[in-house]
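Quick one: C-alpha cells for this chain, please?
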Amino acid sequence: MIATRTHIKVSLGYFLLAALLGVLLRTFVVAPMPINYRFIVHTHSHIALLGWVYIALATLLYHLFLDKQGLDRKYRRIFWFTQICLLGMLLSFPFQGYALFSIIFSTLFLLASYWFSAFFIKYAPQSFKGTKAYSCVKYALWFMIGSSVGPWCLGVIMTVLGPESIWYRLAIYFYLHFQYNGWMILALMGLFFYLLEQLQINISTKTFRYFFLTTVLGIILSFFLSTLWTGPSKIYYVLGGLGAVLQLIGFGILINICLGNRMVLKSALSQLQLNVLKLVAFLLLVKMILQWLTAWPYFANLAAAVLDFTIGYLHWTFLGVISIGLFFFLEFFGLIKLSKMAITLYLGGFLLTETLIFYRGMAAWLGWPLFEDYSIFLASGSILIPLAVLLIFWQSKGNLVKSRA
C-alpha cells in the first residue's frame, strides 16, 4: 500500500520550506543577506505551487480514487520522478534563477504532471467516472495541462520578443490563472463533491449542470481579466467581467447546495471542520468579488499600477482559499490532525500579513504614510505561518483517525 500520510508529510515539508523562504524574503528587506532576492522568489513560488499544492492534491486524488486499484508500483514511479524534478528545481533556482538546469527540471515537472493526469484518467474506476466529483477533477486536470501552454511559450517569447514583451507577462498570467482557478480550485470543488457524495447527499443533474457550466465557462472567460493591464478594447473587459459573474453564480449554486443539506454536513463534520469549511467559503467569496472588481477599468488600472494589490490577491488565493481548503480535506479524510491552535496560529499569520500587504497597497494608492518598522512587522507576522505548519506536523505524528476514503 502507498504510504499516503507519508506523501502528505512530504507535501507539508515543501510548504514549510516555501513558508521559510517567504520569511527569508521579507527579512531580506530588513537585514540584507548575501542571496539573490529574485532567485529566491522563483524558488519560493515553484516549491509552494508545485511542491505543497500539487503533491497534496495528487496524493488526495490517488488516495480517494485509485488507492484500491492495485496501482502502487505505477504510482510510485510517478511520485518519485516528480520528487526528482522538485529537488532539481530546489537545488538550481536559488543559485541560477531561470537558467539551463532550472528550466530542464521545470520542463520535466510538466511532463510528470502530464504523466499523472493520464494515469489518473486511465485508471479511475468506472464507478467513479459517472460521478459529479470526477467531472470536476477531470476538467481540473485538463486545466492544469492547458496552463502549461504558458511555460512552453516562454522560451520562444524570450528568444524572439524578449522578456520586456507584453507576451512574456501574458504567458505567465495564463499559467497562473489556470493553475489557481482551473486546476487547484476546481480540484478542491471536485473533492467537495466527493465528500457530498460520500455523505449520500443527492444533487440533481440539472443543478450540477448549471454549477459546472457556469464555473468552467467562468474560469475560461475570467482569464481576460489578466490581460486588462495591456489596455485592450472594451470587449475584453466585458468577457472578463462575464467570467467573474459566472464564477460567482457557480459559487452561489454550491452554497445553496450546502445550505439545503446543512443538517447532514453538521452531523458529519466536527465543529472545527465546519468552521474551517465556512472560512474557506468566505475567503473564496472575497476572492471572487475582488476578481469581479478588476473587470471595471478603474480597478483594473489600479491593480496593474499597485503591485501590492496583485501580491495580496495571489496570497489571499494561495495561502487562504487553496491552502486552508487543503487543510480541511486532509483533516476530514484523516491524513493530518488539524487543531484549533494550529489553524488559529496559521490564520494569525495569514491575516496579519495580508492586512499589511493590502495596507501598503492602499498607502501607495491614497498617499498614506507607512508606519515605522513596517517591514519588521511584516517579516515577524510571516513567521507564524511556518510555525503553524510545524505544529500540524507535530500533532499529526503517530496514528490518525481512520481514513474516510
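The mean pLDDT is 94.
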